[in-house]
Amino acid sequence: MRSILTIVFGIIISFTAASSSLAESYPSKPVRVVMPFAAGSPTDALARIITTALSTRLKQAFIVDNKPGASGIIGTDTVAKSTADGYTLLFSTNTTQIANQFLFKRIPYNPSKDFSAIAVVGGVPHVLVVNPSLPVKSVSELIQYAKSHPDQIAFPYANSTTRITGSTFRVMTGTAITAVPYKTYPQAVSELLAGQTQMMFIDFATGLPHIRSGKLRPLAVTPNRSSKLPDVPSVSDSLPGFQIGNWAGLFAPAGTPNDIIARLNREVTAIMADAEVQKQIDGIGYELMKPMSPAAFQDFTISERQHYAEIVRKAGIQPE
User: Fold this and answer.
1) What is the residue range of 277's domain?
2) Nearest-10 Cα torsion for 59, 52, 298, 183
3) Do residues 205 and 189 make contact, with C-beta atoms less than 8 angstroms apart?
4) Within 10 A of 148 (CB to CB), how many other CB atoms are there?
5) CB–CB of 104/174 below 8 Å?
6) Could you report the per-residue pLDDT of 46-75, keeping only the tens digit for each?
7) Which residues pair with 287 in a beta bridge?
8) What is the DSSP letter of 281?
9) CB 69 within 8 A of CB 183
């Protein structure tokens, strides 16, 4: 019996040592970080800040690979089906990891089973904006205008989050505004600026430059008021209970060694504590979130799914 126990303990010790050694030597080659949204998108900008810092800290290239399309489904599915060795990662948002499963009848990946959460990075408030050609300057004026001009106001969307915010606003206000889908986020914004659509819940990273230049008029912020637009109220001031935000983080295919996930979490946490990185992230409109362990981040995604399920139900959105 003693010899058997000795062998078992020896195997456990060897496995632990090998796992620890794996994490210490990681990465030994370039790491591919799939970005399921277009280059130039807010999430893409955030991912490049984090991957640049990871490359510097770990002395190995972390390469952003943009694979946009289908509300992020194409790129996300690529990672779900990749080898779980730490060399293919996903930098994405609650669009692909939460909302998509409620907006599509079928998606090729299972967000709760096919991924291991690594680290949450930041959240980005959204601001309800209108094209200046629309004669409204507040949420209440927008609601009144939409009710007196049914089917004459449209909002663009290119991902699940922007679709949910617009649809929720439509249902809560009882207005007949129209949702217009676009393939990419930059395209959706471009059409809003051109006046092809009239209103949008746009993220701060994209919206602030256009707001400051006068090309878009801000009406309200969600989920809460922001110091970046101190004079702009929150949507919930006019519509109690309207609180929808966006967040982004790093994920790995399920089955990726825990030691690698733990090391990446430590590195991202250290990066987020760097003053220069914080300045860069603030500059693109994102706001840092409190660091979470991989387990805490995983639990957070579970609670977010429950939250979004209720939002989608109330908004009456039918899966496509």
Assistant:
1) 28-124+246-315
2) -140
3) no
4) 9
5) no
6) 999 999 999 999 999 999 999 998 889 999
7) 123
8) H
9) yes
What CATH number does the domain containing 285 carry?
3.40.190.150
CB-CB contact of 245 with 222 (8 Å): yes
Q: Is there a single domain that holds both residue 85 and residue 73? A: yes
Which whole-number Å values give the CA distances from 232 to 5, 46, 103, 131, in the listed order?
A: 67, 24, 30, 16
Burial-class residue 196 by CB neighbours within 10 Å (0-12, 13-18, 19+): middle
Tokens representing 185 are 């986020």
Helix axis angle for 294-315 and 160-173, nearest 10°, is: 40
Q: Same domain for 119 and 42?
A: yes
Contact 190, 202 (CB under 8 A): no
HEC secondary structure over 237-266: HHCCCCCCCEEEEEEEECCCCHHHHHHHHH
d(CA 268, CA 218): 33
Q: Cα(25)–Cα(229) distance, rounded to whole angstroms?
A: 45
Q: Is residue 15, in this structure, part of any structural domain at all?
A: no
Q: Which amino acid is at 181?
A: P
pLDDT tens-digit series, residues 262-282: 999 999 999 999 999 999 998
Q: Show Cβ contacts of residue 37 under 8 Å, excluding neighbours closer than 6 positions.
A: 43, 44, 66, 68, 72, 75, 92, 93, 159, 184, 185
Q: How far apart are CA 118 and CA 131, in angstroms?
A: 38
Q: Are residues 232 and 143 in the same domain?
A: yes
- Strand positions, DSSP E, 158-297: 178-181, 199-203, 217-222, 246-253, 287-288
Kindly report the CATH number assigned to the domain that includes residue 178.
3.40.190.10
Strands (E), the chain: 31-35, 62-66, 88-93, 115-124, 126-130, 154-157, 178-181, 199-203, 217-222, 246-253, 287-288
pTM summary value: 0.81
Phi-psi map region of 316: left, alpha, beta (phi>0 left; psi -120 to 50 alpha): left
pLDDT digits (tens, 9 = 90+) for 212-257: 999 999 999 998 888 889 999 999 999 998 888 889 999 999 999 9
